[in-house]
From TrEMBL:
Keywords: Membrane, Transmembrane, Transmembrane helix. The lineage of its organism: Bacteria, Pseudomonadati, Acidobacteriota, Terriglobia, Terriglobales. The chain crosses the membrane at residues 123-143, 152-171, 177-196, 208-241, 247-266, 295-316, 323-342, 348-368, 375-399. The keyword Transmembrane applies. The keyword Kinase does not apply. This is Glycosyltransferase RgtA/B/C/D-like domain-containing protein. It comes from the Bacteria.
């Protein structure tokens, strides 16, 4: 099968099954969740951003100016609810005046308090974040398959879909899952731009535009993730551009300017709340091992931890595992895990997980090409099966 010039064969179908398994996990959790005050805050303030009411004087929304908390998650949470409201009002206007349900032209005369008029709020609120997590899974599959082949891609995607922490953050409104999505795309898009720079200039513009969008959306999710991604992009592009290195700073500066425009748009082009991006302290960070202890000390991640230990030993001990495709995600994960923010509550160690899974897929794919292929295929199969079983047993706890 071919769809939009993309070949859909057996590997793509199996990857789709893994993503459907991930979707089923998330929907099972969401079905057993109750809307919390945290959820309602994201929905209310997100709808305020889209529907532009008159919030408290001097503030962007009733949640404040959100200089330290990215606006991306609020807009993602509020968009489906606002879209349903617009549809309800549009359908009502098609009725005759005497049969209209909303005679005043708004739901119950209020912009965002008519929760009883909007159906399936729980699913509308959570599904966009599940969608972005699945989108990241597609990106993880695409990157690892191009770098390491089908088997390495299956291993990386399987670990991602069966990671309890990924499921936990995918079923609740938050900026971290969006920052994770944006940062991973930003880093590998930058590498794609650097490779394109070796070819004709007509191929540069689409990838530079994609880099600009990735940087802007990452900044809208979390400023620290965008800052980290910008520095990583600079280093990687200088390394890969070779004879075209003189263009790297021009490309990144233009991308940064475009990203600021995108970020400004998230604040509805209002200078006052936008200024809080630079004064809210979201870019302040320090180093700590708390994230490392939380992830690697969690028994629910036991098979992933074991696979990481094996991969680290193999990376150090086997020369064929030490190459650029494996080293980049390893370095990225090693730098992200100890990051902690000092002014806002966030979890930078979550951003490291796609890079960790990319590293694991790369190392084990190298060993699939040795005479120990069957042994390592059996090992990775056992790791995936055990991790899937553990993840399924943890779903009730995630739903609470």
């Amino acid at each position: 099968m071919r769809l939009l010039k993309i070949q859909i064969g057996r590997p793509q179908q199996l990857a789709a099954l893994l993503l459907l398994f991930f979707l089923a996990e998330c929907l099972w959790v969401v079905n057993r969740q109750e809307i919390s005050e945290h959820d309602y805050r994201f929905a209310r303030c997100g709808r305020e951003m889209w529907e532009r009411p008159s919030p408290l004087a001097g503030y962007f929304t009733t949640c404040g100016n959100l200089g330290g908390d990215g606006t991306f998650a609020y807009r993602v949470a509020g968009f489906p609810l606002t879209a349903q409201r617009v549809v309800l009002l549009g359908v009502d206007k098609l009725r005759s005046p005497e049969n209209r349900l909303y005679a005043s032209g708004s739901l119950n005369g209020s912009t965002w308090e008519a929760r009883h008029e909007i159906g399936s709020v729980k699913y509308l609120l959570h599904l966009p974040f599940i969608f972005f997590a699945m989108w990241l899974g597609v990106g993880l599959w695409w990157v690892t398959r191009r770098l390491f082949g089908n088997e390495g891609a299956f291993f990386a995607l399987g670990l991602y879909c069966c990671c309890p922490e990924v499921v936990r953050f995918s079923v609740t409104p938050n900026n971290d899952v969006l920052a994770m999505w944006g940062l991973y795309g930003l880093v590998y898009t930058a590498m794609g731009v650097a490779h394109a720079m070796q070819g004709p200039r007509r191929k540069w513009k689409p990838r530079i535009a994609l880099l600009t969008v990735a940087l802007g959306l990452t900044a809208a999710a979390h400023l620290l993730a965008a800052m980290f991604g910008f520095v990583a992009a600079l280093v990687l592009m200088i390394y890969l551009a070779e004879r075209r290195r003189s263009y790297v700073m021009q490309i990144l500066v233009s991308s940064a300017v475009g990203a600021l425009v995108i970020l400004f748009a998230f604040y509805a082009f209002r200078p006052a709340p936008f200024s809080y991006v630079f004064t809210g302290g979201a870019g302040r960070f320090w180093l700590s091992l708390d994230g490392v202890r939380r992830f690697f000390g969690n028994m629910g991640n036991g098979p992933i931890v074991a696979a990481t230990g094996v991969a680290a030993v193999l990376y150090v001990g086997i020369r064929r595992c030490r190459y650029f495709g494996n080293t980049v995600p390893l370095v990225m994960a090693a730098l992200l895990f100890p990051l902690v923010t000092t002014q806002v509550v966030t979890t930078p160690w979550l951003w490291a997980l796609p890079f960790l899974f990319t590293f694991l897929g790369g190392v084990f794919s190298d060993l699939f090409e040795t005479r120990y292929r069957k042994m390592f295929l059996g090992l990775t199969g056992a790791v995936l099966l055990t991790q899937a079983m553990i993840c399924l047993t943890m779903l009730p706890g995630i739903a609470q």
